[in-house]
Amino acid sequence: MTNTKAPQNILIHIIRRDLRSSDNPLFHAAATAPDEEKFDAHLPIFVFDASQVDVSGFIKFEGATNPYKSPRSQVAGYPRCGPYRAKFLAESVWDLSESLKALGSGLFIRVGKIADVLESLIDELAMKDARVGTVWMTSHEGSEEKADERAIASLCGKIGAKWKLWVDEKYFIDDRDTGLESIEALPDIFTTYRKMQEPLREKPRPVLPPIEKGSLPPLIDAFLVAPQPAPFRIPDTLDGLVGSLVAPVKDFLLYKPDFPENAQSAHPYQGGETAAHERLNDFILSGAANTYEKTRNGLLGAEFSTKLSAFLAQGCITARQVHAAMDAFERGTDPDFRVVEGFGAYMTEEAMSEDKAENPGTQCIRTELLWRDYMRLCHQKFGNKFFRLAGTQNKYELDDGVSGSGTDGETQRRKWKSPVKERALPQQTPTAQGVAEILERFNAGTTGMSLIDASQRELLHTGYTSNRARQNVASFLSKHLNIDWRYGAEWYEMLLVDYDVSSNWANWQYVSGVGNDPRSEIRIFNPIKQAFEYDKDGSYVRTWLPEVSKLKKLENVFQPCTASEEDLEEAGLADNIMVAEPVKRIDFIVDTRPRTGNRNGGFRRPGRRGGGGGSRHTTNGRGNGGDLAPVRVNGNGNGNGNGHGHTQDIRVDAPVVNGTTRGPGHRGSGNRGTYGGPRGSPRGGRGSFGGGGHYNNNNNNNNGSFGPAPNLSNGAGYSPAPVNGGGPGPQGGGQQFQLPRRGGSGGGSRGRGGAEWPSLQW
């Protein structure tokens, strides 16, 4: 047997959420180091962290017990990582191992706490006269991640090893290129940040060149590496690895509904770097990247969105690799994309002179990649405020001195209902037990609000649900039910295959009204209206909520408690809890008469000039107003308007007024208020509403009595759709948030652009 000297300059590379060999600065640096800086042994290692995943499935010794507690969320006590992300993670780790083998290297896999595993490795190497020279790790956001980084830095200090924490480069714009002097300088509004970074297609750094086979430092001899301590054993097959991770969490719900017969997962992808690039190429080749702006709010199927979020979350692919592939398509440098319409558009004379290389689809994808960047930077800025009930903005002060203390040490805030008696305020309705029962139904998808239930069922069965559905689910829990939003965030943390700590928690805060969007508090989704808008034939709801599939009328499909007794009997739903005891009922009237006005029903995209006017559901007239946008508007202007006829409030959340939201109104005129910014009366005095009474908007407009409509227009708030003007309305103070209405709209010069709300990437 030949005696060989133990290596004295070992590089330990700890891998977490950067599960790729390509465009990975740590592997690249190890492969390209000059001779005088080369390492004589390389130890790449991934640890299934017992603080984030349940590792009890790795116990293969009879009678052995798990030395680690099952990781649970802090508020609800859900498993931290459910079966879908566990499977995806196992596949991603296995794929990286195979990729490294193909490069002449390999990957060591262990189970436990990261700092404990590293200490065990160091001790074993020292016993065999080997020395650790350097430890590398990529920086990640999260309190546990930061605690690991500090612990490892401390260990390196004790043994005299060099320690380097690398910038996480899987994001769209490198942290060093944002132009921010400090994280505190990050704007609290995404639009402001986006404008700082434009033009977006010029900002990402180039993708790193591929690693050549044999260029990485020699893989350390397995004899020198401490084995996996008992009672755990690492499987030597992919199926074994997946099974070990999934087994402890597969039965997360006691009574799980059957998988619908005709349903298919919208996220059928295996984890890993290989699958990530296959998905990216397929998405561009299918032409779906070109149409992304139009399809991104889809609900069914795989092609309406990129489905790259899970790969991005685990670092199987980088955002700049996504950008580079789109850029190769736009420039015409990748012949594989030649068959796709728009190939080489950047190189045309028109594009070079007018910068028209991006089509709306690829432009939208880049904006949403930047949104992911922004959520992570917000996490850096606000830290653990991401996980607090009051959010990053400390919303909802104490209610007349009534306070309580939650188990997380926070002061109980008003508004939020809790299923825990000790956290609930004394006057909470329903009781804590009642809230707990509602949460059980919310999680199981039996609330009686079909869009919400369909999304929750899809999530239960596949680990995925669309962005549009996620927004509605978050809004329903936090704004319709006023339940502590963290229960929803932690449910998503458990089940989402594409869970990302920064994106998930920032977006739940954003929708719940406690995040860094100053107007998110008044953004409320009406799930009935949203279903009519985005599930026009009810196919999504019928697919994932088969109980309602036999109902014929869409309004009944979307809210089965509105169906007639005969229809419910025929559908077998008469005694179903979704019908008998819906968690919440939203009265919504469907107006089936032919629509006049513009073909898009009054909806316009942000940043476009207002067009001509129709007469129903709106106010005719002209005005120097801000453009109407599907989500937010912000502009200045006044105009004269006349409105008449029936109207239906089709805001994101239509108010319920005596069971309806429309009624005949008298003709009248009024000064139209500005949209966003300082504003006046959103209309003149309101005409008759629902056949009686005049509406006073409580904005110094004493023209008529207060009708049965909610007054939300004083200060920051929604303005209900105008029924009729009843007289001139003077200017008032405050701010207005208003959504567009069906029918035409007043033309006018373009107003100041408001803060946008991109499609959320969870």
From TrEMBL:
Its cofactor is FAD; (6R)-5,10-methylene-5,6,7,8-tetrahydrofolate. Residues 695-708 have a biased composition (Low complexity). GO terms for molecular function: damaged DNA binding; deoxyribodipyrimidine photo-lyase activity; FAD binding. InterPro entries: Cry_DASH, Crypto/Photolyase_FAD-like_sf, Crypto/Photolyase_N_sf, Cryptochr/Photolyase_FAD-bd, Cryptochrome/DNA_photolyase_1, DNA_photolyase_N, Rossmann-like_a/b/a_fold. The record marks W416, W485, W508 as: Electron transfer via tryptophanyl radical. Keywords: Chromophore, FAD, Flavoprotein. FAD binds at Y292, S305, T306, K307, L308, S309, D498, Y499, D500. It comes from the Eukaryota. Residues 398-430, 592-762 are annotated as: Disordered. One of its GO terms (biological process) is photoreactive repair. PROSITE patterns: PHR_CRY_ALPHA_BETA. Residues 9-171 form the Photolyase/cryptochrome alpha/beta domain. Pfam families: DNA_photolyase, FAD_binding_7. Signal peptide: none annotated. Residues 666-694, 724-735, 743-754 have a biased composition (Gly residues). Binds 1 FAD per subunit. Binds 1 5,10-methenyltetrahydrofolate (MTHF) per subunit. Belongs to the DNA photolyase class-1 family. May have a photoreceptor function. This is Cryptochrome DASH. It comes from Triangularia setosa. The lineage of its organism: Eukaryota, Fungi, Dikarya, Ascomycota, Pezizomycotina.
